[in-house]
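Please, structure for the following, as tokens.
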Amino acid sequence: MGEDMDNFGRRDFLHSATSLAASTFLVGTGLLLTRSARAQVSVQGSRKYGVKALLFDMFGTVLDMWTTLPREAEKILKPRGINLDWQAFGRAWLGEYGPSIVPVREGTIPFVPLDTLFRQNLERVLPRFGVKDLPKDVFEQLHLVWHRLDAWPDVTSGMAALGKNFLLAPCSNGNIAMMADIARHNNIRFDAILGAEIARTYKPAPKVYTMSCEAFGLKTGECMMIGAAGHTSDFEGAAKAGMKTGAVARPNEGGPGKGTSVPRFKVAVAADDLSDLAARLMA
């Protein structure tokens, strides 16, 4: 019985997320008006900031890649006799992320989901560390570490608090399947999964933000982009699209003591963590 209920919950979660993501392509046709009306009355939102939906950057804001990637790589590869500088390997793998999305955003190559780019990045990084000819199942297990990244300690309780008053969704460069797995791994409940895959390009391209807001039937000014304090380009992109912005301190985002607590971009609200954000938005 418990397993059946869990399977039903997973199907329901993925169906809702993918249906809403797919429906985004109908924005502007007039076919979403009734759903838009429902979206606008389903939550209280923040009167102080005039927002009803919170859209989240995921990598670094919600998720702790710097801890998860090296740890999981060691767990997978070390039993097979492979010994690396695991921190260096994690940094190198993560370092490929930014450059890999640029050709897509600039239109040099067609859109491909981030899963595809991350797989290509891993193929490039492994030989630099002398790792070759991994069995396919081991390679895939390593690649899918991105689907089970750990969230920061405040995330599960903070998201639960925020979800009482706001629509919640990733506005991430991560693809829908990846975000669904991450949400389940960290016990996060999202109302939709939005971002790059529905816009067919990568942040900070403007339509990633605008299409994510439109999917909820809301104006951009009724949505707030939530990012780690150091994510200036994301804040700039969201603000140019007309969104409000909110920052969360992530002092260890780049490793212990290698993050940012105070945003350089002028945001509407800055918080210590997601629980603090929930309190500030509803003050």
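Residues 1-38 have pLDDT under 50 and may be disordered. DSSP finds 13 helices and six strands in the chain.
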